[in-house]
Write a structure and sequence with these properties.
heterodimer; A: 256 residues; 2 domains; B: 251 residues; Rossmann fold
Chain lengths: 256, 251
């Protein structure tokens, strides 16, 4: 019994210490962001990587999400004779939930895992130590631009996701299943409110921060081996995804 | 001058450094030797603040750096450069950009001044015309040369070499050693090298220090070191390190 309690205590201390280190990592990175020299070029490069290079996969996911949502929604709403509300069902689902969550999960898989691997390899091959020896702070040079890229890039991708998803829904609902075009777009206009859009933006900013924070942290503290790098990448993707879904619940409960 | 006083460090529950007292002479090439896993690289990383001691002090000039961090530690590091075991070149940058990196980032230099200094250093290390290549396209020896060019380009007062010839064939290892000695003599920087290359290090070093059981067993000029009467050290330098293996590895 004492042994079990001891192990539980050690596990708790380890987790609390890890969480503290994660918070310090993020806060230090933001503190370095405010100090010159400002890494504008690095930030643009990361924004290109996180944002622009994720566009294709986000558009593809959004289009099919909107299409399947319209398909499911149409047959459900038809039972109640409410096909005219299909547009609002698709748009609200997209803007409030599916856009931020699915876009964030796709960015985690595509850009987040690459961030962890890149930083992890730099750690293993002593490139991060090399930055330190040159008196260049790695948090300022490597991490802060990635955090900013996540904060800006993910909301923009979510906006694209929402628009493409709604058009995907229109393609299936209006063009294939015969819902009136006017009814589709009018129901969106009347149902979607500013607070829905605001909530989606808030979620996407939070998810962008979670992705870049967790993935950079896991890469930065990778253990010195190929196995350690593999584990760090897996942990980064799993932890980011779980935190996105958990924080989505709490943000929704606050926003509703 | 770099001076370590009573430095102790435990890693993963294993004591690695157990009271290191060491002074590195200015403007000389000092080599630290010792068995595999004896903590030579750990010792080197303490000198530049990449690792902090559990106990003891690390002095660089008149600054004690073991508890420094952030900007104050970076100020001290401006005197240093380091050549890592694997050269630690940035994969995403060409050789030219790697060597130019500290000039652009630290001195905010631009344009022809950067090109001139980079080409000059690449020529000195025998990599003239190789600036466009990426690290992945270079052999082990060329990577070390590029790393050395990057270390030299800021004209630092102190350069640390972490096993600069590991993984190289004997001829390439000799050429890297010759290059380090030539550069050290020409520019007069303080050099600290960790090496396994015995007896080659005695031919190139001004001073040799031996790490044994977490302490400096002997520090002497290269000539005096070879005349030591300590039987363990004599055996180590005659057979190339086998007696210094920790018990777990020796078994």
């Amino acid at each position: 019994m004492t042994n079990v309690l001891g192990q539980l205590g050690a596990w708790t201390v380890h987790r609390v210490r890890e969480m503290g280190r994660m918070w310090l990592f993020m806060l230090s990175s933001f503190a370095w962001l405010a100090r010159p020299p400002f890494r504008f070029h690095q930030t643009m490069k990361q924004l290109h990587f996180v944002g622009y290079k994720s566009t294709f996969v986000v558009v593809l996911t959004a289009a099919f999400t909107g299409m399947v949502l319209a398909l499911q929604g149409y047959y459900t709403l038809r039972k109640f004779g409410s096909e005219g509300l299909l547009g609002s069902a698709v748009a609200l689902s997209m803007i409030r939930e599916l856009g931020p969550v699915l876009a964030a999960l796709m960015v985690t898989a595509r850009a987040g895992s690459a961030m962890t691997a890149e930083i992890g390899i730099m750690r293993i091959t002593e490139q991060i130590d090399a930055l330190d020896t040159m008196a260049i702070n790695p948090l300022q040079y490597l991490i802060a631009p990635k955090l900013v890229a996540g904060l800006i890039g993910v909301p923009l991708l979510v906006a694209i996701f929402d628009v493409v998803g709604i058009y995907g829904g229109s393609l299936v609902g209006v063009d294939l299943l015969g819902v009136s075009e006017g009814a589709y777009w009018n129901s969106i206009q009347s149902a979607v409110e500013w607070k829905d859009v605001y909530g989606g933006i808030l979620k996407s900013i939070s998810f962008g921060l979670i992705i870049s924070w967790v993935c950079c942290y896991k890469g930065f503290y990778t253990r010195q081996s190929a196995e350690g790098l593999g584990r760090a990448t897996t942990e980064a993707v799993v932890l980011s995804s779980v935190l996105i879904l958990v924080s989505d619940y709490f943000l929704t409960s606050v926003l509703l | 001058m770099i001076k370590l006083v009573g430095v102790e460090k435990t890693l993963g529950g294993q004591p690695v450094l157990q009271g290191i007292d060491l002074s590195i002479p200015v403007g000389k090439l000092t080599t630290i030797i010792g068995g595999s896993g004896s903590g030579k690289s750990v010792l080197l990383k303490h000198m530049i603040g990449l690792m902090q001691p559990d106990r003891g002090e690390v002095w660089v000039g008149d600054v004690e750096i073991s508890r420094l961090s952030g900007t104050r530690l970076n100020d001290v590091r401006k005197q240093f450069a380091m050549l890592f075991q694997g050269a630690a070149l940035f994969d995403s940058l060409s050789v030219f950009e790697n060597v130019a990196f500290p000039l652009r980032e630290k001195l905010r230099m631009k344009g022809p001044d950067v090109a001139r200094r980079v080409e000059e250093k690449l020529e000195e290390v025998g990599l003239a015309g190789m600036g466009h290549k990426f690290p992945a396209e270079l052999s082990g020896g060329m990577r070390k040369r590029a790393g050395l060019a990057r270390a030299l380009v800021m004209e630092p007062g102190i350069i640390l070499f972490d096993e600069p010839t590991t993984g190289l064939d004997p001829l390439m290892a000799k050429s890297i050693h010759d290059l380090i000695v030539t550069m050290q003599r020409r520019f007069g920087f303080t050099a600290v090298m960790v090496s396994h290359e015995i007896p080659e290090v005695f031919g190139i070093s001004d001073w040799v220090a031996m790490l044994r059981k977490g302490k400096i067993a002997l520090m002497a000029t290269a000539a005096e070191f070879q005349r030591t009467t300590d039987p363990e050290i004599r055996e180590f330098i005659s057979v190339g390190g086998t007696v210094m293996l920790p018990n777990s590895l020796a078994e």
